[in-house]
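So, could you explain this one?
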Amino acid sequence: MEFEVAHSSFIEAHTNVRTGERRGRLLRGHNFAEKLFLQNVWWPLFESLEHLHPEYEVYDWNRKSQFLDFAFMPQNGTRFGIECDGYQSHIKDMDREKFNYALNRDTFLTGMGWKMLHFSFDDIQQRPEVCRMLLQLALAPYLARSRSGGELLSAEMDVLRLAWRISRPLRPKDVTDYLHVNYRTAHKLLVVLSDKGFIKPVSSKERVRYYEVNSMRLDQIW
């Protein structure tokens, strides 16, 4: 029920500040697939819809108006465009001209500083855990900060990317092999990331041997 309340407030807030076609597009375009993305993918990761803009207007190289399903624009200035693509509407019914335009539009927006992310409706509905993994992997390197507010050092970020990339708990040996550092340095990096709240130790009977990634929340990003 918490999501439903947050979603209703989210749509109402954006509707109230829009006029004309921007308002009309929100009312027409934010439908089942877009809501399901928020419910199945976004909300379980972040438990917040802050900095997220539904049906966000952008312009192509000819100043032609287009709308992204979502724009995520945190305070650090990074801009992510998120699209929920259904096979029927985005692929099967797309002719060559529309296909070419879709590719060119993404390339243009990338050149303008946007980071474009696409998720299929089938995955959103049937395999949301895959979407959550990919979304976190895409967002986290640009947005992560420690819970104390401090920035991550380069080596710490490299270890965090490794932790997000592999599909099992992280060992110090994984870090030594990946960064070509000694065991003591690898262990120190893992302890620092644990202290900052990004990973958590998995205890064994004798000592900590593995670390798991903590879920990312909006209070951990800029």
Notes: The longest strand covers residues 52-59. Residues 96-111 form the longest helix (16 residues).
